[in-house]
Amino acid sequence: MTTTSPANLPNDVGTLKALLLAQDEVLEGLREHLNTHAVEIEHLKLQIAKLRRMQFGRKSEKLDHQIEQMELQLEELQADEAEAERKMPAPAPAPQKRSN
Q1: Using an 8 Å Cβ cutoff, are 6 and 31 in contact?
Q2: What digits encode the pLDDT tens for the residues 58-84?
Q3: Can you tell me the distance from the alpha carbon of 96 to that of 77, in angstroms, rounded to the nearest whole number?
């Protein structure tokens, strides 16, 4: 793109219109180029975010395994507690008061 100074502009209206239209086309091309870059940038940001989630996903698998182990321990403890309660003798009924 060339720099246009007032001294370099043609005096003919038709030529000025043509120059203006040419500059509009150049500007539209630049806008499209910028939009394309903006779309590419957004796409790359999304890919990076996805890759980061995948990267941290591996680490979260360890946490998932630990959580599963804790849940199994909890279930075992709850089962042991229920079994112990079942084996315990029932409490003796409280003596009832006689009414006079």
Answers
A1: no
A2: 666 766 777 788 888 887 788 888 777
A3: 36
